[in-house]
Task: inverse folding
């Protein structure tokens, strides 16, 4: 069942939906599901991702389960506005990689009557709020937090464990660098990890 069907769906206005969680929790998969349902409803969609994320494809958003949907790479969040004039539904993946301008862009799109669906990590590898996502959570009408499975103990996981000693906040990667962990098994001090 679609998350919005549990609530009154707005009409004649725009709104923001945020799908957040740790890596491998199904955020992009859920984004793709919602966008495909919009297409089935004959709504025009526009899908975007940051130019930084070309892990699986340059012209698709791709889930870790190999689901994909055509998308446009953008370097600056304002490009999203330029490319979505005709869209009724705007999907944005990996929003944590955009600067804070993504917040104003999402507000502008929603204020112009568009359904804006944003997916991204809400915490960095240290378990700290990540980029613009916390602010987007505050202004969104609908929020979905996805959980993964902790690779250590099997409990629900909401943290992303980095498996390298790198200190940069942003390192684009997948299973080679990251894994899902629960609160108990997450080790934010990467200095203690072996490379």
Result:
């Amino acid at each position: 069942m679609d998350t919005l069907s549990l609530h009154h769906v707005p009409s004649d206005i725009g709104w923001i939906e945020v799908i957040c969680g740790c890596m491998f929790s199904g955020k992009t998969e859920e984004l793709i599901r919602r966008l495909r349902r919009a297409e089935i409803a004959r709504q025009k969609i526009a899908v975007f991702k940051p130019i930084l994320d070309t892990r699986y494809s340059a012209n698709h958003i791709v889930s870790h389960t190999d689901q994909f949907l055509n998308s446009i790479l953008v370097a600056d969040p304002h490009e999203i506005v330029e490319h979505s004039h005709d869209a009724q539904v705007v999907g944005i993946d990996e929003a944590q990689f955009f600067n804070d301008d993504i917040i104003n862009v999402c507000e502008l799109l929603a204020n112009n009557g568009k359904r804006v669906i944003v997916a991204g990590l809400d915490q960095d590898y240290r378990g700290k709020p990540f980029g613009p996502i916390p602010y987007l959570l505050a202004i969104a009408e609908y929020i979905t937090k996805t959980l993964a499975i902790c690779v250590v103990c099997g409990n629900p996981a909401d943290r992303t464990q980095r498996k390298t000693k790198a200190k940069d906040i942003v390192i684009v990667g997948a299973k080679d660098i990251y894994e899902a962990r629960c609160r108990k098994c997450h080790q934010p001090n990467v200095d203690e990890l072996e490379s």
